[in-house]
Amino acid sequence: MRLPVEPRHVAPRLATGAFILNSGVAKRGVDEQSATQLHGMAKNAYPFLGKLRPATFVRLLSASEMALGAALLLPVVPTVVAGIGLTAFSAGLVGLYLRTPGMREEGSLRPTQEGTALAKDTWMLGIGVGFLVDEATRRAR
Question: Which residue ranges run through the membrane (predicted)?
Answer without folding.
Answer: 80-98
